[in-house]
Write a structure and sequence with these properties.
This protein is mostly beta strands. The chain is built from four helices and 21 strands. The strands form five sheets. A five-stranded mixed beta sheet has the order 17-21-20-19-18, with no helix packed on it. Strands 1-2-3-4 form a four-stranded antiparallel beta sheet, with no helix packed on it. Helix 1 runs antiparallel to helix 2. The protein is globular, with a radius of gyration of 22 Å. The structure holds beta-D-galactopyranose (GAL). The site of beta-D-galactopyranose has 10 residues, from strand 5 and strand 13.
């Protein structure tokens, strides 16, 4: 077979032959290499999934080998699948601009956590992502949008935002709009400082230029309204912001979630009319214990629950960090927790942890399993009762 592959490669047939080599997958194997149709480990980190007309589309950060891969060298990679186990390479959906072009998404920028949604009104696919401008570390804290009329792209870059410039969040009290003497000198993490954060310390600071936007996700509710949920205020507080009808901008209606809670990697789903949010703490590429929240309205109040993960390695979320909660098409209340096992020394090797999300009352739960399939979501059938 080796010689056949060699022959295939020589004849330029590596793709089709390798494809024949890639056995059809029938299960998820969290943390294991996950080959695409060419036998190459999926390259879609910080990913999200769009379900469109019977097909799933996976979008994620394309990483290259070596530490340089922690910045965007290529763009956003797209794969498609009918069954969620077997992914077909659809190539680069959004390509970074050439270095030196002056584009906000030029090669070397940081382009993370892409999420794509379909807008029924415009018929366009809308991609949002976290953008950091080249050579500025994580200081720019912007969220950016690109559009396409095909799910797989190519996506056209539209613009980036510091969201909600000049807009106070819902319920922001009049007396919070003025700075308080000495508040900038408060010691971080003290109760007084936490209170000051909840009362708008950073919101006031960024009111003019717009709020910071780092780790993010996009959520489209049943009524077609879309929201951006992003880490803001130096990663201290999550902001939930309503998007315009075309999903390409902000309406100015927004709220905070868990002020000073230090959450990132937000992932959201809805079950039985309640919203569930899974996040992580903020420890960069190193994993930490996940958090979970529930609310009856996206506008809150949000109630913090437990670490959804239980069992060995729950304190590091099985060495991973959340990126998306994927509703399985055609199965009620079936959500896949998608997470990244980052490998910043060689980012291309990053692994994917996909686990079934279960619920104990309101509490979302994650349990490790080496291998599982979508059948895990099927309710055990009630035993037939025998009438005597
Ligand atoms: C993580 C974040 C990642 C990436 C990383 C950089 O906390 O979730 O998306 O931004 O920090 O250190």
């Amino acid at each position: 077979m080796k010689s056949l592959l060699l022959l295939g490669a020589l004849l330029g047939l590596a793709g089709p032959l390798a494809q024949a080599q890639t056995p059809k997958r029938t299960a998820f194997e969290p943390g294991r290499p996950w080959p695409d149709n060419h036998g190459v480990h999926l390259n879609a980190h910080g990913a999200g999934v769009l379900y469109d007309r019977g097909r799933y589309y996976l979008f994620g950060e394309h990483k290259i080998a070596g530490p340089k891969g922690n910045t965007a060298q290529v763009g956003v990679h797209c794969y498609s699948s009918k069954d969620l186990y077997n992914w077909q390479d659809e190539g680069i959906a959004l390509t970074v601009a050439p270095e030196g072009s002056g584009s906000e998404i030029q090669k070397g920028c940081v382009l993370e956590r892409p999420k794509v949604v379909f807008n029924k009104k415009t018929g366009q696919y809308v991609m949002w992502f976290h953008l950091e401008l080249k050579d500025q570390g994580y200081a720019a804290s912007r969220t950016a949008v690109a559009v396409s009329n095909k799910a797989t792209g190519p996506y056209r870059y539209v613009r980036s935002y510091r969201p909600n410039a000049g807009q106070w969040p819902l319920g922001f009290k009049e007396e919070w709009k003025q700075p308080r003497p000495g508040e900038q000198d408060l010691k971080w993490w003290t109760p007084e400082w936490r209170q000051a954060v909840a009362d708008g310390l950073f919101i006031r600071r960024d009111f003019g230029p717009g709020q910071m936007a780092r780790d993010m996700t996009i959520y489209v509710d049943d009524d077609g309204k879309a929201y951006s949920i992003h880490s803001s205020e130096e990663n201290l507080t999550l902001h939930l912001s309503e998007l315009t009808d075309d999903y390409q901008g902000f309406t100015g209606k927004w709220t905070t979630i868990a002020p000073a809670g230090h959450n990132e990697a937000p992932a959201l789903c809805k079950k039985d009319g309640k919203y569930y949010l899974i996040t992580s703490g903020c420890t960069g590429w190193a994993p930490n214990a996940a958090r979970s929240f529930v609310a009856s309205s996206l506008w809150g109040p949000w109630k913090q629950l437990e670490n959804p993960a239980v069992g060995p390695e729950a304190d590091s979320t099985f060495r991973s960090q959340s990126t998306y909660l994927l509703p399985v098409a055609g199965k009620k209340d079936a959500f896949i927790f998608m997470a990244d096992r980052w490998t910043p020394k060689n980012p291309i090797d990053g692994g994917y942890i996909w686990l079934p999300l279960s619920f104990e009352g309101d509490q979302p739960r994650l349990r490790w399993t080496d291998r599982w399939a979508l059948g895990a979501f099927d309710q055990p059938k009630a035993k037939p009762t025998v009438n005597q």
